Amino acid sequence: MRKTYQSKVGLILCAAIALPILLPLIITPFDPNGLIVGLILASVIALPFLFGTHYRIQGHVLEIRCAFIIRIDVDILRITRVSKTRNPISAPALSLDRMEIIYGNGLRHVIISPKDKMGFVHSLKAINDRITVSGVSDQASSIL
Q1: Residue 7: closest CA among 126, 119, 115, 140
Q2: Helices 32-52 and 11-27: angle between axes, nearest 10 degrees
Q3: Which intervals hold domain Uncharacterized protein YyaB-like PH (predicted)?
Q4: Whole-prediction pTM value?
């Protein structure tokens, strides 16, 4: 089975990325060249994250990718728990509506934010039905 889930994109994190890039352009005297350079720079920085952050289930491996920076592979058979979190820690997640995945005998974790949380959890549980799910949604808890 091969299934890809895109990251949910949250408005707060988009603003946190865009504001430091665009603020100098707003507060400095208007310069068309500076504005163009700033917009190009913002696009070059933001687009790889927006389009390159995804979570792919391939066989029994969860591949977590965030632009060209983060590449994490997790054996789904070693995942013990998936739970909802709003932890703002740096993670391959573009939203604060996040899920924490605990794996490797509870010693390791990764935080992600798939857009389709229910489908993502169902795909994980189809491979490893021993995964404990908490707080992802009321429907997920009752179905799983």
Answers
A1: 115
A2: 170
A3: 53-128
A4: 0.78
Q: What is the dihedral of CA 112, 113, 114, 120, to 10 degrees?
A: 60
The Cα 4–Cα 116 span in angstroms is 10
Helix (H) or strand (E) holding 98: strand 98-103
Tell me the residue range of the domain where 103 lies: 2-143
Q: 144, 131, 138, 143: which is closest to 62 by C-alpha?
A: 131
- By the 10 Å C-beta count (0-12 exposed, 13-18 middle, 19+ buried), 59 is classed as exposed
Question: CB–CB of 55/7 below 8 Å?
Answer: yes
The CATH number linked to 43 is: 2.30.29
Domain count, the chain: 1
